[in-house]
Amino acid sequence: MSPSKTSEQEDQMFRLLRQLDIAPDASQRALAQAIGVSLGRLNALLKQATDAGLVNIEDRNGPDKR
Question: pTM of the prediction?
Answer without folding.
Answer: 0.80
